[in-house]
Amino acid sequence: MLIQRLISSDKYGIKCPYVMDPIGICIHNTANDASAANEIAYMQRNNNEVSFHIAIDDKEAIQGIPFNRNAWAAGDGNGQGNRRYIHVEICYSKSGGPKFEAAEKIAAQEVAALLKQYGWGIDRVTKHQDFSGKYCPHRTLDMGWQRFLNMIQAELNGASQENGELYRVRKSWGDAASQKGAYSIKENAIAECKNHSGYNVYDSNGNCVYSNGGSQPSQPTPTKEKIDLFSRVAVKGRGSKYYDWVKNLTDYTGDMKNPCCLFMAYPTKGEVRFRVSPISEGRYYSEVQNYYSSKGIYDEAGLPNVPFDKIQMRFDLPGYKIRYRAMCNGCWLDWVENGNSYMEGHNGYAGLGDGTPITAIECEIVTR
Ligand SMILES: [Zn+2]
User: Fold this and answer.
1) What is the per-residue pLDDT across 247-278, written as a single tens digit (0 to 9) for each?
2) Ligand 1 centroid from CA 127, angstroms
3) How far is CA 63 from CA 6, 37, 87, in A?
4) C or N terminus of the chain, fewer CB within 10 Å?
5) How far away, in angstroms, is 296 Cα from ligand 1 center?
6) Ligand 1: centre distance to CA 62 (Å)
7) What distance in angstroms lies between residue 154's CA and the mean position of ligand 1's atoms?
8) How far is the CA of 22 from the centre of ligand 1 (A)?
Protein backbone atom coordinates (compact mmCIF):
# COMPACT_ATOMS: atom_id res chain seq x y z
CA MET A 1 0.00 0.00 0.00
CA LEU A 2 1.23 3.44 -0.92
CA ILE A 3 1.08 5.88 1.98
CA GLN A 4 0.48 9.47 0.93
CA ARG A 5 2.35 12.18 2.76
CA LEU A 6 2.16 14.88 0.13
CA ILE A 7 4.29 17.99 0.26
CA SER A 8 2.73 21.32 1.18
CA SER A 9 1.80 23.38 -1.87
CA ASP A 10 3.97 26.18 -0.41
CA LYS A 11 6.94 24.15 -1.58
CA TYR A 12 5.78 23.35 -5.11
CA GLY A 13 7.98 26.14 -6.46
CA ILE A 14 11.14 24.45 -5.15
CA LYS A 15 10.31 20.78 -5.32
CA CYS A 16 7.79 20.22 -8.12
CA PRO A 17 7.10 23.43 -10.06
CA TYR A 18 5.69 21.88 -13.23
CA VAL A 19 2.46 20.05 -13.93
CA MET A 20 3.31 16.66 -15.41
CA ASP A 21 1.61 13.95 -17.43
CA PRO A 22 3.91 11.04 -16.59
CA ILE A 23 5.16 8.64 -19.27
CA GLY A 24 7.15 6.22 -17.12
CA ILE A 25 8.87 5.34 -13.87
CA CYS A 26 12.51 5.99 -12.97
CA ILE A 27 14.29 3.92 -10.32
CA HIS A 28 16.90 5.22 -7.87
CA ASN A 29 18.83 4.02 -4.85
CA THR A 30 19.25 6.53 -2.01
CA ALA A 31 22.94 5.69 -1.42
CA ASN A 32 22.01 6.25 2.21
CA ASP A 33 20.84 4.24 5.22
CA ALA A 34 17.80 6.32 6.19
CA SER A 35 14.22 5.05 6.34
CA ALA A 36 11.59 6.03 3.75
CA ALA A 37 9.83 8.27 6.29
CA ASN A 38 13.10 10.11 6.98
CA GLU A 39 13.98 10.43 3.29
CA ILE A 40 10.57 11.96 2.54
CA ALA A 41 10.67 14.25 5.58
CA TYR A 42 14.17 15.45 4.73
CA MET A 43 13.32 15.99 1.06
CA GLN A 44 10.24 18.03 1.98
CA ARG A 45 11.99 20.04 4.69
CA ASN A 46 15.10 21.25 2.88
CA ASN A 47 15.09 23.96 0.23
CA ASN A 48 17.24 22.26 -2.41
CA GLU A 49 15.84 21.64 -5.87
CA VAL A 50 16.12 17.92 -5.27
CA SER A 51 12.99 15.78 -5.01
CA PHE A 52 11.37 12.43 -5.83
CA HIS A 53 7.84 11.06 -5.77
CA ILE A 54 8.17 7.91 -3.67
CA ALA A 55 10.61 6.49 -1.10
CA ILE A 56 10.45 2.81 -0.22
CA ASP A 57 12.13 0.97 2.63
CA ASP A 58 11.83 -2.55 4.07
CA LYS A 59 8.45 -1.72 5.64
CA GLU A 60 6.58 0.89 3.65
CA ALA A 61 6.26 2.97 0.51
CA ILE A 62 5.58 6.69 1.01
CA GLN A 63 4.57 9.19 -1.66
CA GLY A 64 5.77 12.74 -1.06
CA ILE A 65 4.93 14.47 -4.36
CA PRO A 66 1.76 14.15 -6.46
CA PHE A 67 2.17 12.13 -9.66
CA ASN A 68 0.86 15.00 -11.72
CA ARG A 69 3.77 17.22 -10.76
CA ASN A 70 7.41 16.87 -11.76
CA ALA A 71 10.34 16.05 -9.48
CA TRP A 72 14.00 17.04 -9.68
CA ALA A 73 15.73 13.67 -9.62
CA ALA A 74 17.06 12.63 -13.02
CA GLY A 75 19.91 15.13 -13.41
CA ASP A 76 18.82 15.98 -16.98
CA GLY A 77 17.74 19.57 -16.40
CA ASN A 78 14.43 20.13 -18.14
CA GLY A 79 14.75 16.86 -20.05
CA GLN A 80 12.23 14.03 -20.11
CA GLY A 81 13.62 12.45 -16.95
CA ASN A 82 12.88 15.40 -14.70
CA ARG A 83 9.71 16.46 -16.48
CA ARG A 84 7.88 13.27 -17.44
CA TYR A 85 8.88 10.47 -15.02
CA ILE A 86 7.68 9.25 -11.64
CA HIS A 87 10.79 8.90 -9.47
CA VAL A 88 11.12 6.03 -7.01
CA GLU A 89 13.88 5.90 -4.39
CA ILE A 90 14.78 2.54 -2.86
CA CYS A 91 16.21 3.00 0.66
CA TYR A 92 19.06 1.37 2.59
CA SER A 93 21.24 0.93 -0.51
CA LYS A 94 24.40 2.22 1.20
CA SER A 95 24.86 -0.83 3.41
CA GLY A 96 22.64 -3.25 1.49
CA GLY A 97 21.76 -6.60 3.05
CA PRO A 98 18.34 -7.91 4.09
CA LYS A 99 16.79 -4.47 4.66
CA PHE A 100 17.70 -3.34 1.17
CA GLU A 101 16.52 -6.61 -0.34
CA ALA A 102 13.19 -6.23 1.45
CA ALA A 103 12.94 -2.64 0.19
CA GLU A 104 13.60 -3.78 -3.39
CA LYS A 105 10.87 -6.39 -3.05
CA ILE A 106 8.32 -3.78 -1.92
CA ALA A 107 9.57 -1.48 -4.69
CA ALA A 108 8.87 -4.20 -7.28
CA GLN A 109 5.31 -4.50 -5.93
CA GLU A 110 4.70 -0.74 -5.93
CA VAL A 111 6.18 -0.25 -9.40
CA ALA A 112 4.02 -3.11 -10.72
CA ALA A 113 0.95 -1.50 -9.13
CA LEU A 114 1.79 1.82 -10.80
CA LEU A 115 2.32 0.16 -14.19
CA LYS A 116 -1.08 -1.47 -13.85
CA GLN A 117 -2.68 1.78 -12.75
CA TYR A 118 -1.35 3.63 -15.79
CA GLY A 119 -1.82 0.68 -18.17
CA TRP A 120 1.92 0.56 -18.88
CA GLY A 121 4.22 -2.37 -19.65
CA ILE A 122 7.61 -3.16 -18.13
CA ASP A 123 9.26 -1.09 -20.90
CA ARG A 124 8.15 2.04 -19.03
CA VAL A 125 10.57 1.28 -16.19
CA THR A 126 13.83 3.20 -16.50
CA LYS A 127 16.79 3.98 -14.28
CA HIS A 128 18.43 7.25 -13.31
CA GLN A 129 21.50 6.17 -15.29
CA ASP A 130 19.44 6.30 -18.51
CA PHE A 131 19.00 10.07 -18.18
CA SER A 132 22.26 11.44 -16.82
CA GLY A 133 24.78 8.62 -16.84
CA LYS A 134 25.00 8.64 -13.04
CA TYR A 135 25.56 5.14 -11.67
CA CYS A 136 22.16 5.00 -9.97
CA PRO A 137 20.40 2.87 -8.72
CA HIS A 138 23.90 1.73 -7.72
CA ARG A 139 23.17 -1.36 -5.63
CA THR A 140 20.28 -2.52 -7.81
CA LEU A 141 22.67 -2.26 -10.79
CA ASP A 142 25.40 -4.14 -8.88
CA MET A 143 22.93 -6.92 -8.10
CA GLY A 144 21.57 -6.97 -11.66
CA TRP A 145 19.16 -4.62 -13.43
CA GLN A 146 17.43 -7.38 -15.40
CA ARG A 147 16.98 -9.28 -12.12
CA PHE A 148 15.05 -6.28 -10.73
CA LEU A 149 12.95 -5.96 -13.90
CA ASN A 150 12.14 -9.68 -13.56
CA MET A 151 10.96 -9.05 -9.99
CA ILE A 152 8.55 -6.39 -11.29
CA GLN A 153 7.38 -8.65 -14.13
CA ALA A 154 6.74 -11.45 -11.64
CA GLU A 155 4.53 -9.07 -9.63
CA LEU A 156 2.69 -8.10 -12.80
CA ASN A 157 2.14 -11.74 -13.72
CA GLY A 158 1.04 -12.63 -10.21
CA ALA A 159 -1.38 -9.73 -10.10
CA SER A 160 -2.98 -10.57 -13.42
CA GLN A 161 -3.35 -14.23 -12.42
CA GLU A 162 -4.86 -13.23 -9.10
CA ASN A 163 -7.57 -11.13 -10.65
CA GLY A 164 -8.12 -13.77 -13.33
CA GLU A 165 -7.72 -11.36 -16.24
CA LEU A 166 -7.22 -13.14 -19.54
CA TYR A 167 -6.52 -11.57 -22.92
CA ARG A 168 -7.96 -13.56 -25.81
CA VAL A 169 -6.87 -13.35 -29.42
CA ARG A 170 -9.95 -13.78 -31.62
CA LYS A 171 -11.49 -12.57 -34.90
CA SER A 172 -14.35 -11.11 -32.89
CA TRP A 173 -15.49 -11.39 -29.28
CA GLY A 174 -18.45 -13.55 -30.30
CA ASP A 175 -16.33 -15.94 -32.40
CA ALA A 176 -14.81 -18.09 -29.66
CA ALA A 177 -13.90 -20.79 -32.20
CA SER A 178 -11.43 -18.44 -33.87
CA GLN A 179 -9.39 -18.06 -30.67
CA LYS A 180 -5.63 -18.29 -31.20
CA GLY A 181 -4.79 -18.20 -27.51
CA ALA A 182 -5.52 -16.67 -24.10
CA TYR A 183 -2.85 -14.85 -22.13
CA SER A 184 -2.66 -13.45 -18.62
CA ILE A 185 -0.21 -10.80 -19.85
CA LYS A 186 -1.65 -8.31 -22.29
CA GLU A 187 1.65 -7.70 -24.11
CA ASN A 188 1.94 -11.40 -24.89
CA ALA A 189 -1.56 -11.47 -26.34
CA ILE A 190 -0.78 -8.43 -28.49
CA ALA A 191 2.45 -10.02 -29.71
CA GLU A 192 0.47 -13.11 -30.76
CA CYS A 193 -2.24 -10.99 -32.38
CA LYS A 194 0.36 -9.25 -34.55
CA ASN A 195 0.96 -12.61 -36.24
CA HIS A 196 -2.69 -12.88 -37.25
CA SER A 197 -4.12 -10.25 -39.54
CA GLY A 198 -7.87 -9.95 -39.04
CA TYR A 199 -7.69 -10.65 -35.30
CA ASN A 200 -8.17 -8.59 -32.16
CA VAL A 201 -7.24 -8.88 -28.47
CA TYR A 202 -10.13 -8.86 -26.01
CA ASP A 203 -10.07 -8.56 -22.25
CA SER A 204 -12.28 -10.66 -19.96
CA ASN A 205 -15.17 -8.25 -20.38
CA GLY A 206 -15.06 -8.47 -24.17
CA ASN A 207 -13.50 -5.04 -24.61
CA CYS A 208 -11.23 -4.86 -27.63
CA VAL A 209 -7.87 -3.74 -26.26
CA TYR A 210 -5.84 -4.16 -29.47
CA SER A 211 -6.83 -4.53 -33.09
CA ASN A 212 -4.99 -6.16 -35.97
CA GLY A 213 -7.97 -5.68 -38.28
CA GLY A 214 -10.41 -8.07 -36.66
CA SER A 215 -14.10 -7.49 -37.23
CA GLN A 216 -15.92 -4.83 -35.25
CA PRO A 217 -12.68 -3.83 -33.53
CA SER A 218 -14.37 -1.83 -30.86
CA GLN A 219 -17.60 -3.26 -29.59
CA PRO A 220 -16.80 -2.30 -26.05
CA THR A 221 -19.09 -3.41 -23.31
CA PRO A 222 -19.09 -0.15 -21.41
CA THR A 223 -17.49 -0.89 -18.09
CA LYS A 224 -17.66 1.79 -15.46
CA GLU A 225 -14.41 3.20 -14.27
CA LYS A 226 -13.38 2.06 -10.79
CA ILE A 227 -13.24 5.00 -8.41
CA ASP A 228 -10.95 4.56 -5.44
CA LEU A 229 -11.79 6.01 -2.08
CA PHE A 230 -9.11 6.83 0.49
CA SER A 231 -10.07 7.31 4.11
CA ARG A 232 -8.44 7.73 7.50
CA VAL A 233 -9.30 8.56 11.10
CA ALA A 234 -7.63 9.98 14.18
CA VAL A 235 -8.76 8.40 17.45
CA LYS A 236 -9.15 9.72 20.98
CA GLY A 237 -5.80 10.21 22.66
CA ARG A 238 -3.97 10.90 19.37
CA GLY A 239 -5.19 14.45 18.78
CA SER A 240 -4.82 15.28 15.09
CA LYS A 241 -2.40 12.41 14.43
CA TYR A 242 -4.15 10.34 11.79
CA TYR A 243 -3.66 6.69 11.03
CA ASP A 244 -2.37 5.94 7.53
CA TRP A 245 -4.65 6.35 4.53
CA VAL A 246 -6.63 3.25 3.66
CA LYS A 247 -7.64 2.52 0.07
CA ASN A 248 -11.16 1.14 -0.41
CA LEU A 249 -11.62 -2.02 1.64
CA THR A 250 -7.97 -3.10 1.65
CA ASP A 251 -8.15 -2.35 5.37
CA TYR A 252 -10.36 -0.59 7.88
CA THR A 253 -9.37 2.74 9.39
CA GLY A 254 -9.28 3.02 13.17
CA ASP A 255 -7.86 0.61 15.74
CA MET A 256 -11.06 -1.19 16.90
CA LYS A 257 -10.39 0.02 20.42
CA ASN A 258 -10.24 3.80 20.75
CA PRO A 259 -13.14 6.08 19.70
CA CYS A 260 -12.82 7.72 16.27
CA CYS A 261 -12.76 11.52 16.53
CA LEU A 262 -11.55 12.89 13.17
CA PHE A 263 -12.40 11.50 9.74
CA MET A 264 -11.19 12.35 6.23
CA ALA A 265 -11.88 10.79 2.86
CA TYR A 266 -11.29 11.61 -0.77
CA PRO A 267 -12.18 9.83 -4.03
CA THR A 268 -10.01 9.66 -7.17
CA LYS A 269 -12.93 11.19 -9.07
CA GLY A 270 -15.99 13.16 -8.05
CA GLU A 271 -16.68 14.53 -4.61
CA VAL A 272 -17.46 12.80 -1.37
CA ARG A 273 -19.31 14.62 1.41
CA PHE A 274 -19.51 13.52 5.01
CA ARG A 275 -20.33 14.67 8.51
CA VAL A 276 -20.13 13.28 12.03
CA SER A 277 -22.20 13.66 15.15
CA PRO A 278 -20.08 13.93 18.33
CA ILE A 279 -21.50 12.07 21.32
CA SER A 280 -21.29 15.15 23.51
CA GLU A 281 -23.26 17.28 21.02
CA GLY A 282 -26.10 15.04 19.87
CA ARG A 283 -26.15 16.82 16.51
CA TYR A 284 -24.13 16.76 13.32
CA TYR A 285 -21.26 19.12 12.74
CA SER A 286 -21.17 20.88 9.37
CA GLU A 287 -20.77 18.72 6.31
CA VAL A 288 -17.32 18.52 4.76
CA GLN A 289 -16.70 18.14 1.05
CA ASN A 290 -13.61 16.42 -0.36
CA TYR A 291 -12.35 15.77 -3.84
CA TYR A 292 -9.07 14.58 -5.24
CA SER A 293 -6.67 17.46 -4.93
CA SER A 294 -3.09 17.49 -6.13
CA LYS A 295 -2.49 20.16 -3.53
CA GLY A 296 -2.95 17.57 -0.85
CA ILE A 297 -5.39 19.73 1.06
CA TYR A 298 -8.28 17.92 2.63
CA ASP A 299 -11.00 18.99 4.99
CA GLU A 300 -11.76 16.91 8.03
CA ALA A 301 -14.93 16.09 9.96
CA GLY A 302 -14.98 16.11 13.76
CA LEU A 303 -12.81 17.58 16.45
CA PRO A 304 -9.57 16.15 17.91
CA ASN A 305 -10.22 13.83 20.88
CA VAL A 306 -14.02 14.28 20.67
CA PRO A 307 -15.62 10.87 19.90
CA PHE A 308 -18.56 10.63 17.48
CA ASP A 309 -21.31 8.01 17.42
CA LYS A 310 -22.75 8.67 13.95
CA ILE A 311 -21.21 9.28 10.54
CA GLN A 312 -22.88 9.98 7.21
CA MET A 313 -21.30 9.92 3.76
CA ARG A 314 -22.59 10.64 0.29
CA PHE A 315 -21.13 10.67 -3.22
CA ASP A 316 -22.10 12.89 -6.11
CA LEU A 317 -21.41 11.01 -9.36
CA PRO A 318 -24.44 9.43 -11.08
CA GLY A 319 -24.14 5.67 -11.48
CA TYR A 320 -22.12 5.29 -8.30
CA LYS A 321 -22.85 5.06 -4.61
CA ILE A 322 -20.82 5.02 -1.43
CA ARG A 323 -20.91 2.06 0.97
CA TYR A 324 -19.70 2.33 4.52
CA ARG A 325 -20.03 0.74 7.90
CA ALA A 326 -18.91 1.34 11.46
CA MET A 327 -17.62 -0.85 14.25
CA CYS A 328 -19.12 -0.42 17.72
CA ASN A 329 -18.45 -2.58 20.80
CA GLY A 330 -16.18 -4.83 18.70
CA CYS A 331 -18.83 -5.65 16.07
CA TRP A 332 -19.34 -4.35 12.56
CA LEU A 333 -22.76 -2.81 12.07
CA ASP A 334 -24.71 -3.19 8.82
CA TRP A 335 -23.44 -1.61 5.63
CA VAL A 336 -24.99 1.73 4.76
CA GLU A 337 -25.34 2.84 1.14
CA ASN A 338 -25.92 6.40 0.00
CA GLY A 339 -25.98 8.10 -3.36
CA ASN A 340 -25.96 11.86 -3.61
CA SER A 341 -28.40 12.08 -0.71
CA TYR A 342 -28.20 10.70 2.81
CA MET A 343 -31.79 9.58 2.45
CA GLU A 344 -31.08 7.41 -0.57
CA GLY A 345 -30.43 3.83 0.47
CA HIS A 346 -31.15 2.58 3.94
CA ASN A 347 -30.27 3.78 7.46
CA GLY A 348 -28.78 7.06 6.34
CA TYR A 349 -25.91 6.83 8.78
CA ALA A 350 -23.39 4.40 10.27
CA GLY A 351 -23.08 4.00 14.02
CA LEU A 352 -25.57 3.36 16.81
CA GLY A 353 -26.17 7.03 17.58
CA ASP A 354 -26.82 6.21 21.23
CA GLY A 355 -23.55 7.41 22.71
CA THR A 356 -21.60 4.27 21.77
CA PRO A 357 -18.29 5.32 20.20
CA ILE A 358 -17.30 4.14 16.71
CA THR A 359 -13.91 2.41 16.80
CA ALA A 360 -13.32 1.62 13.10
CA ILE A 361 -14.77 2.54 9.70
CA GLU A 362 -14.76 0.89 6.29
CA CYS A 363 -15.85 2.63 3.09
CA GLU A 364 -15.69 2.29 -0.69
CA ILE A 365 -17.34 3.61 -3.84
CA VAL A 366 -19.18 1.08 -5.96
CA THR A 367 -21.22 1.21 -9.14
CA ARG A 368 -24.96 0.76 -9.11
ZN1 LIG B 1 19.27 8.47 -8.68
Assistant:
1) 999 899 999 999 999 999 999 888 899 999 99
2) 8
3) 6, 10, 10
4) C
5) 25
6) 17
7) 24
8) 17
Q: Residue type at 302? A: G
CA dihedral sign of residues 47, 65, 290, 231:
negative
289-333: pLDDT as tens digits: 886 655 555 688 999 999 999 999 999 888 899 999 999 999 998
- Backbone φ and ψ for 97, nearest 5 degrees, come out as 85, -165
Q: Separation of 342 CA from ligand 1 center, angstroms?
A: 49
Domains identified in the chain and CATH numbers:
2-160 (3.40.80.10), 167-212 (no CATH), 229-367 (no CATH)
C-alpha closest to that of 254 among 354, 110, 363, 366: 363
Give the distance (Å) from ligand 1 centre to CA of residue 26.
Answer: 8
Helix residue ranges per DSSP H, the chain = 12-15, 36-45, 80-84, 98-118, 128-132, 138-143, 145-162, 186-193
Residues 6+ apart with CB under 8 A from 198: 171, 212, 213, 214, 215
Give start and end residues of each alpha helix (H) in 16-55. Answer: 36-45
Please write down the long-range contacts of 192-197, taking CB distance under 8 Å and 24 or more positions apart: 193/169, 196/169
Q: How far is the CA of 292 from the centre of ligand 1 (A)?
A: 29
**117 CA → ligand 1 middle, Å:** 23
Output the CA 5–ligand 1 centroid distance in Å.
Answer: 21
Question: What is the distance between the alpha carbons of residues 35 and 32, in angstroms, rounded to a whole number?
Answer: 9
